[in-house]
User: Fold this.
Amino acid sequence: SYVDQDRFLGIRRGDESALERLVRERFPALLAEARSHLGPEADAAPRVVEHALLRAWKARERFDEAGAFDAFLHETL
Assistant:
């Protein structure tokens, strides 16, 4: 899990600092997950993570709880 409920609530409200904390704390794990999916294209992982985070940020109001937001982020990766 990348996103706890408190952080999610901040992100859902549009608190950019909550998103920044998520990125700072979880970027290495997100990057590792993206690399594992990309295989020989692993060099693209940073861009894939940035894209996934941007999509999740834009979609944040669709989700009622952290688990759904987190699942969306994993699926997007």
About this structure: The CA atoms of residues 46 and 70 lie 18 Å apart. The chain has four helices and no strands. The mean pLDDT is 94. The radius of gyration is 12 Å.
